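Thread: DUF3152 domain-containing protein, structure

OP (GT): Posting the sequence first so everyone is looking at the same thing. Length is 293 residues per the record. Can we get the structure tokens written out before standup tomorrow? I want them in the notebook alongside the other entries.
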Amino acid sequence: MSVGRIVMYVFAAMLAGVTIGMLKSWPPPEPSPRTLAQPEAPAVVTSISVRSSPTPAPASSSPAPSAEPPPASGERKPVRYRPGPELPPGEAVRAEGEGWWRTIAGTTAQVGTGQVRTYSVEVEQGAVLPHTHQQFAAAVDAALADPRGWTASGEVAFRRVDVEEPDVRIRLTATGTARAICGFDLPYDTSCYAGGVVYVSAPRWFRGAQSFAGDLEGYRRYLINHEIGHFLGHGHEACPADGAPAPVMMQQTFSVSNDRLAEITAPSPQGFTVPRDGKTCVANPWPHPEVSR
């Protein structure tokens, strides 16, 4: 290679190095407005808000103040709730029937060894649904046949009839009919015995009484035994002792507390003055609860 060519190569290399250096130091071009970086939009997240329980306060060494001071030693805490005469919540029943009754077919053998008293079971037409008729009759039969019932005394026996004239009729009755017959002296749904007929209030039959605390079967047996007790000549009674079974002739539909019952019946005495003596009994459907079943 000639000296001239070598000189040319060296010169070309130097020129390329200078060009690259100038390019590296040249300021970068400004970006086009359409390529400017945009701030990122926050992501949208769909969520369900659940309210959490508040953070519990730190435990304290001293107890929180009570709404009511505890009773002193030996002191009886006052009773806050006494069952009353209002109907418990439950299914609605028709207020009015047609005013006439149909005898439910069926008879029973005699139960008991005393004087035989016959009864029929009847339902006011239009008062209740047909499928409840036989249920009502079966419940009446069971109440009167139970060994804890009136037959335990040995003085009376029962037999159900459906054709012959009975000694007493037991009728499931609409609200309006029961109130018209049993009276409006007390503003509560109630059953009664009048003129050889037991009128069973349909609202009471299907909803019971507060005194029985949801024991609908027990209340129904009480209702039948109480009204048949009137048919047999028994009057009303009061609670004899705190915590004792209420007498079946106590007006347990209204209350098992003498004080509460006296308050309820004061405007319309029920043939018996209830003593205000603070005694409260336990609901009981039987004339003879002491008898083992």
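GT: Both are above now. Quick notes for whoever picks this up: The first strand starts at residue 101 and ends at 103. Residues 35 and 41 are 17 Å apart (CA to CA).
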